[in-house]
């Protein structure tokens, strides 16, 4: 499954900001295929179903002057990503191979330039764009806040939810900020991602020194610690910030890192299996630990072979081949 941290909807969708250059390459197994290189890559290499409007999304970004990134240019990136578009040097948008977000670009273009909104952008979206967003819809909605429009009319997006919480804090509405931050972590909104819990932990920590709240200062510190520990139970590469920042709130030192390093040794795996864990599950878990450890310094390429081997041993041959693929 694919998911698509720039845009997300309720069905598990996260795009990550990453970076790499474009290199033209055809991935289609058939030269007569009408699919784009990215769609072919997703089908043939990532073995997943391409997002419905991926071609239109890429056309919109191209019309905005952005460089399309080769889907196989994965060197130095999280092995589970599929590069799409270069936004700026060192920063691109990529799909995560893990189950996409509704396009929000047309509406943002319309809001940022209500009078002279670039028709080129809307033309690039084609007929699919007309079904997603019509020019002027935001103005006609009479919702003056862009994030409120997105959350009500389009879907749930992490950046919109986080800005909403921050505005509540700036306006002194601490109760609403806490409620919104808690909603961000609600089960089913962004399953599998640590970012909502990491953000909530930082919000709770911010409130520990503020008195006009529903609970005491100590209570907020404990809640922040619990939220941080909850975040660290998910994949560390989905935190959206440095591991050390959340580990401090969780009051975890180096012990968790040491524990993970021990788990990826032969002895650690044997101990798990001796305790009853199936070999396939032990291999799958080891791949997760390796990716978490690599996320600390971004040393993805150094662990590729071993991660792929773990996925193969877990019976996930397609994922293993996808992880290893590079232009």
TrEMBL record:
Q: Which PANTHER family match?
A: CYCLIN DELTA-3
Q: Which organism is it from?
A: Eutrema salsugineum
> What protein does this entry describe?
Cyclin delta-3
């Amino acid at each position: 499954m694919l998911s698509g941290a720039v845009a997300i909807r309720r069905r598990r969708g996260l795009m990550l900001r990453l970076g790499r250059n474009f290199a033209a390459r055809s991935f289609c197994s058939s030269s007569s295929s009408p699919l784009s290189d990215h769609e072919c890559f997703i089908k043939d290499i990532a073995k997943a179903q391409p997002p419905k409007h991926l071609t239109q999304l890429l056309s919109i970004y191209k019309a905005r002057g952005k460089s399309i990134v080769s889907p196989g240019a994965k060197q130095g990136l999280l092995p589970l990503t599929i590069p799409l578009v270069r936004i700026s040097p060192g920063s691109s948008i990529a799909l995560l191979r893990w189950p996409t977000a509704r396009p929000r670009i047309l509406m943002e273009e319309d809001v940022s330039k209500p009078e002279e909104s670039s028709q080129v952008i809307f033309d690039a979206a084609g007929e699919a764009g007309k079904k997603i967003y019509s020019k002027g819809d935001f103005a006609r909605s009479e919702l003056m806040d862009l994030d409120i429009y997105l959350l009500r009319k389009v879907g749930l997006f992490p950046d919109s939810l986080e800005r909403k919480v921050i505005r509540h804090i700036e306006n002194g509405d601490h109760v609403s900020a806490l409620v919104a931050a808690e909603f961000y972590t609600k089960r089913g909104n962004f399953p599998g991602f640590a970012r909502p819990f990491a953000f909530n932990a930082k919000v709770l920590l911010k409130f520990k020194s503020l008195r006009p709240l529903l609970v005491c200062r100590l209570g907020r510190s404990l809640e922040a610690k619990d939220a941080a520990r909850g975040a660290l139970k998910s994949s560390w590469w989905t935190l959206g910030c440095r591991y050390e920042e959340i580990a401090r709130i969780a009051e975890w030192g180096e012990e968790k890192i040491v524990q993970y390093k021990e788990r990826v040794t032969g002895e650690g795996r044997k101990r798990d299996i001796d305790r009853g864990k199936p070999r396939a599950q032990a291999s799958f878990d080891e791949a997760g630990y390796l990716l978490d450890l690599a996320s600390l310094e971004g040393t993805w390429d150094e662990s590729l072979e071993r991660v792929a081997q773990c996925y193969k041993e877990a019976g996930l041959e397609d994922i293993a081949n996808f992880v290893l693929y590079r232009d």
